Amino acid sequence: MADERPLTRRYTSFAIVAHWLIAVLMIGNLLLGLLVEKLPDEDIRFAIDTHKSIGVTVLGLVLLRILWRLGHRPPPFSTGMAAWERGLAHLAHFGLYLFMLWMPLTGWLHDSAWKAAPEIPLRLFGLFDVPRAGFVMALPADRKEMLHGLFGEMHEIGGYLLIALLLLHIAGALKHQFIDGEPEFRRMWPR
User: Fold this and answer.
1) What are the strands, taking DSSP E only, across 38-181?
2) Does this model's pTM top 0.85?
3) Of 74, 52, 67, 58, which is closest to residue 23 (Cα–Cα)?
4) Distance between CA atoms of 78 and 94, rounded to whole angstroms?
5) Helix/strand/coil for 123
6) Of the candidates 175, 173, 172, 178, which has an alpha carbon nearest to the alpha carbon of residue 189?
């Protein structure tokens, strides 16, 4: 008996490239953030600066992807997906977008409240300065110190929540591809 499921349409080339580039950068940055304190002292500044640069890059790519998404509908889910699976997929995607914005924004605010921010510029891969949040930098030192801790906690907790969402997203894609036999990877896999 022939398979009666329709062929799964693909995301646009831009969406596929943006998806995988953001995924690689985010996962690498999450790992860097988790491991930075285990590095030798002489490597920590470079690792933190790289972490910040990747975060700013991810923010820019996510904003571009959101703008692209507003004008380009994604391919439909497989007809074999249950309604609850579609709902969970939508919720996971919304959460991923939320945390892909949350992480760089809380990191930027955390960095802007850093006591050494006025002396050490935030540079994108050493190429040019990235402005910090002036409204945070203008606050009194004690207020900035409190916000530095608060934004740091928000950033750290967000990182763990993002890891959970990424694992849920990956598990869902693997389930649909290998357990349900849906051609899920065709939608987002590079040709």
Assistant:
1) 123-124, 128-129
2) yes
3) 58
4) 19
5) strand
6) 173
